[in-house]
Write a structure and sequence with these properties.
By secondary structure, the protein is an all-alpha fold. It has ten helices and two strands, in the order βααααβαααααα. The chain has helices at 7-25, 38-55, 58-62, 64-70, 79-96, 111-121, 126-175, 183-234, 239-247, 252-273; strands spanning 2-4, 73-75. It starts with a strand and ends with a helix.
């Protein structure tokens, strides 16, 4: 399940707000309006768009909106819940057999998890399951890398087009040194294009690409736990041993919480039996 990730819009908004506060605090006569230059915007945005069109094919460009949207969403995935699910599957498989797990898949939404359990039910060798699911992870990683490449390239091109705008402004300024009234506007083009390009790169594109890369790593990590869980269930591992094995993937604080809950559960069972 995906939910909105408010940190991305909050971060971008905070960055622009701080920039505006910095401009206003500087006490310049023009204020915010002095940082609005239409020609500079055309140079940076137009040049950036042209470079993207040259660098990528139409199919990749069509995916840009979807890829950027991913930076504003997050997957609700609980590692303790995943481990608990595998413990349940392991207990039922040892008690009633692997074939009974097919009924458990009706409530599972993750297609990767479903695929792994179905392979285990079909009696595929653990090494083959590992290879099949690893291949899917590799394909996912490559797809994500290609998807965020356009954002990474935008982060590279934006400052470069800012510098091109600076050169344009300097050329215009040097060509009109005899007219002092043109020096200010041409210098504004020169500086503001670099400003726009740098802000777009370092506040939008590069951080967004970094977030997408982090999300890919988190998803791969989650899928690796699934692989270990599937193989553990298929091989008939003791549920407690499987729990210890999968708990090794948890952060220290989450691991302590999980162990505490397990101890309470065992204590409750002992009291009930007594």
């Amino acid at each position: 399940m995906k939910k909105r990730d408010i940190l991305t819009p909050v971060g971008i908004t905070l960055g622009f707000v701080m920039l505006m506060f910095g401009i206003l605090a500087s006490g310049g006569s023009g204020g915010i309006l002095s940082f609005l230059q239409v020609s500079s915007i055309f140079i940076v945005i137009g040049g950036l768009a042209a470079a993207i069109l040259i660098n990528f094919n139409l199919d990749q460009i069509k995916l840009t909106g979807h890829v950027m949207k991913e930076a504003f969403t997050k997957r609700e995935e609980s590692l303790p819940d995943l481990i608990g699910l595998f413990i349940h599957l392991s207990e039922r498989a040892r008690r009633e057999g692997l074939l009974t797990l097919e009924n458990e898949l009706e409530e599972v939404e993750d297609p990767f998890l479903k695929k792994g359990v179905l392979l285990a039910i079909d009696g595929i060798e653990p090494e083959v399951i590992h290879d099949i699911m690893d291949a899917e992870i590799t394909a996912l990683e490559e797809r994500h890398q290609k998807g965020r490449l356009i954002i990474e390239k935008a982060g590279e091109y934006a400052p470069a087009w800012g510098m091109i705008g600076t050169l344009i402004g300097l050329v215009l300024m040097l060509n009109n040194l005899q007219d002092p009234t043109t020096l200010g506007p041409n210098m504004a083009v020169a500086l503001l294009t670099t400003f726009y390009g740098t802000v777009l790169a370092n506040l939008v594109f590069i951080p967004m690409a970094g977030k997408l890369e982090n999300k890919t790593e988190e998803e791969i990590f989650y899928k690796q736990i699934i692989i270990e869980g599937v193989i553990g269930v298929q091989s008939g591992q003791n549920p407690r041993i499987l729990e210890e094995k999968l708990a090794a993937f948890l952060p220290a604080d989450m691991k302590k919480k999980t162990n505490s809950e397990a101890e309470k559960s065992l204590l409750g069972e002992s009291v009930h039996e007594a």
